[in-house]
Fold these 3 entries.
Entry 1:
Amino acid sequence: MTTTASAAPINIGKLPWIDEHDRITSVVCDNKLYVFDRKHKVEGERVYSYAVFYTGLPFAIYDLSTKKLIHHEVHKDLNIAGDVAEMIFVINKDIYLMTFVSQDCIDLKDVYKFDKASNEFKHLFKMTGETKYPGHYQNQSCRLIKGGADDKTNNVYFISDAESSTDVVIALNMLDAKVTKLTFEAENKDEQGMRLIMTNACYHDNKIDVFGGVHGCGLMPVHNSVFRFDLKTMKHSVIPIIVADNFGLGMSSIAFMKYLPQKDAILIGRNYVTCGMAGGMQRKWDEKLWLLNNVSTSHLKWTRLNSRLSGNSELPDNRVIFANCDPDGEVVVYGKKQEGVFIQKVTFDTDEPDNFENYE
């Protein structure tokens, strides 16, 4: 086991605006970090349920090569009416903003593309085809998460808890704007289907692995399995995960994940603790990085890395407000409310096991 010290983080500057609500979203594209502010939309006396960027808010761009802030401004209002949610994501070297309704259903609306020359989102297309997925019950706030993209088919995949979520993947073709509902069968006839509150998903080699948790004292993350959609066989199954050595995965959510084909693994950064806290306790930042190994197989294994995201701080009101990584998983970037943006090289050395006491 290697125990090389984790690379030290480098501060590349503070955000050019004051973050008030910890709702920032970020993407890494073409070796640049894009940071977008978000707020709940207000129309008259009505405050809508989702925080969004498209109403015209600040954003900033950092060059990860020069480690400098290269642009920031306030984006124009895209004039999107109603209680409409958004999702910002990257495909290849382009950034997109997708809008959708999530109350009582998932109803996919429009896609905007970020123009790097003008530094603004411009309308690309209105989605067509199978765009609407009804909820299970009245007044359901439906979840939609991005599962990843396939460069060969130009499809972007999404998972939702609307309709029959254990059997359906939503595919958006970025060339013809058409949405298709892909229906899957259980690989094992006795399988009960997905029983997770889904939080994240990752596409790799015609598979989509869905991660999540269950209700407990907060959201209790499930570490010992993933729910997998196989796009070749059109079947879904629950894949068990073992933990290498004596590692404790803890009770934190996922901050980001990135498929690394050269390692046959998914790099995962942990987020704040979501469960197991006494009343009134401040949520602790989980600074650990993990690899989910052997993802091309059904023999998955967790390994904790020696690298850390140094998020915890003695400074007041200095929370980590976003975390991400580059497409190759070589560096992680994260922002803290007081100290600003950090870049840190990932070392893939395996961490020392935890020292648990044995109780008889």
Note: The mean pLDDT is 88.
Entry 2:
Amino acid sequence: MKVYYFNITPLRNKNIFAEKVKEVSPRRLAKIERLKKTDDKLRCLGAGLLINYIREKFDIRDEIMVAKNGKPHFTRTRMSFNISHSGNYVVIVVSDFNIGIDIQRMEKHNHLIAEKNFCANECAYINENDNYEIQRQRFHEIWTIKEAYLKNIGIGLRKPLNSFEIDLSHGNPRIIDNPGYAILQIKLDKLYIMAICSDIRDKEFTMEEVEI
């Protein structure tokens, strides 16, 4: 399992953006042009550049297809990949096994959002500590695990987040209904947290920042 991440900040320079946008596929370019917000355009471009980086690094010539469930995959290469972005970061994970990743910039913790989207035990886990920063981190830990799991199985947010439960009480996160999935959590810096959900626990793990 290998994770590559890219900070989109350089793309805020209009000259750099204009040069880099020439490097992505016509499909990616059309997607960028449909987006209204500048940050969304930058993250979409960053995702395209990371895909290009992966193609070159692993000599992948396949087309990318989107399955019926909406999950992208290479047409012939066995390698599985998944992309996520939030704030200034875009991340991609590649593996020989089915994989899902989610990254979130840790914003303010909202109890109402937790109560609406999480199970009762998950909310209790968040609120058992009175420290706001710990509550905020726990909220985003649960959120990223849930999204990474749904992206792994190719469902996305079509499945309600409160329809399955995450247990973090014993140190190693697990999905109660599907404990066989391997969960890895990583703090990218003080503001960003990510989760990776894999079909099996991959003994090899590397993480690399990419400058494109």
Note: The chain has a mean pLDDT of 92.
Entry 3:
Amino acid sequence: YLIGVGRYDVTGPVAQVNMMGYANPSQTAAGLHQRLYSRAFIVCNNGNSSCVVFVTVDSGMASQVVKLEVIKRLKEKYGQTRYTERNVVISGTHSHSGPAGFFQTMLVEVTSLGAIKQSTDSFIDGIVKSIDQAHSQMRRGSMHIGTDNVVEGNINRSPSAYLKNPLEERERYQYNTEQEMTMLKFKANNGDPIGMFTWYPVHCTSMNFSNQLLSSDNKGRASALFERMMRKSGEDRSGNKSTCGIPPRVKNCVGFGPGVDMFDSTDIIAKRQLETAKILYFNKYEQLVGEVSWVHQYVDMTNQSVQLDDGTNTTTCKPGMGYSFAAGTTDGAGAFNFVQSMTEGTPLWNAVRDDIIVKVVCSVPPPKEYYDCHHPKPVLLPTGYMDRPYAWHPTIVDVQMLRLGQLIIIAVPGEFTTMAGRRIKESVQNEAKAHGIHNAKVAGLSNVYTHYITTPEEYTAQRYEGASTIYGPHTFQAYQQKYTSLVESLILLPDSVAPGPSPADILNEQIELLPPPQPDSVPSGKSIGDVIDDVNGIFPQGAEISVTFYGANPRHNMKLGATYLAVQQLTNDTQWTDVFVDTDWETRFLWK
């Protein structure tokens, strides 16, 4: 194979912008914990005629408008057929501590006051540059795969919904979360390391909703640790990827990590992933052989025909969010009087929906059949009809898979629950095993964000995840049938699949209400860079060191590929050497 890897900074604005993930308007960035990166790999067959690209980004999720713009730039640079929407996957780690505003649908832009051009541009530029690096560094090499379990790396946030799945199905599994990490290792023909990617499903929210520092969270920390380890023995690139009781109110059941604070929890969960990744990378893997291929289709998810187990047919729905979406989750509580597991609306909130939301943002009111379609979800936000100032949810999604020898990467446009992920993985593997392919991996949060995908049984519980399964109770079966139907094409005839209806691209038509940064100013007699609170000359080992400067607003310069700070050591009488910069775990940059 021809193999290349690349990494580039996508951090974006680190101050005065809303952060993406918790939908909390008061969670505004005020500094930097760890820089965010795009990590890419390219694999081509030996004749360089069929290539696939996989990108994992330290962001809450992939964005449709970002992928569309990335593909435009790649086509301008490499021609119309080399890297396209069909063979490029962009996936998010699901950190909830990155900048918001990089979408083209209103629901996920409300708390960020619309689109944020700096966020969008940073992601687009950094993703393209990471792919450029991978393209320019391609070498002949081999691929290897390994799997092992991560010890105590995740928990199930909605175990009561999981219990809705059939007992005989649950008894096939020891845990109510997926424990397995899958590693993909790249090695040059001369034995040199090229890179490594891992997938392990854990919600990347060790940094909680009180955090105001941009952070790549536990996935980014694990990646940085592995990269630092490999740099000691030779440059390498690594990317980690994936994805209590149940009282009525989630505020009484708050999810915390295993550490004494969110920074400690981030470190602990990262190192648990790191230890398994090291075992796999150095000791536990087998070589992949076979073809490199891809399959992709745009699908309108609002009216997909679904055949049920009893032979009857039904359809998916136009998107909508349920009441329990507004209740939030155990790691990010919602507002007002909403609770989890609401299967009936209330007169008050139905009136708010019908008399305010529908009249203000819907060109056409939803019919009764729309609400019936979502049953037993009571729809709070009829986003499928909310079209002012533009669409509130996507309707066209990417259905995409990559083949790397005996491995299939199932790129799904949202967050699949544990059992939903197991089912679609099993369906794809069963379809592929006749062709000698037995490994499949779900890569969530890929290409476009459509919130959650629960099993039909979990949907009836209407916890946060079911309420956020936007295309109705049969969303999962629609995806399961579509992905399974494309397996044969992936293996035999990738070019035979119709492209499907193209999604809209409204990058230049979006609303951006975030005010621009004001001109920088300092008190009379002071200059930017002057020290306010200096450091001491001597510190005990392990002490925290803090220094305060008059500084410019970091929104004026995002320092992509650079740093806002450097900790230097005097290595001789005249030479200062950087020891840490702003992306290192040992530093934190705060701005106010």
Note: Residues 32 and 213 are 5 Å apart (CA to CA).
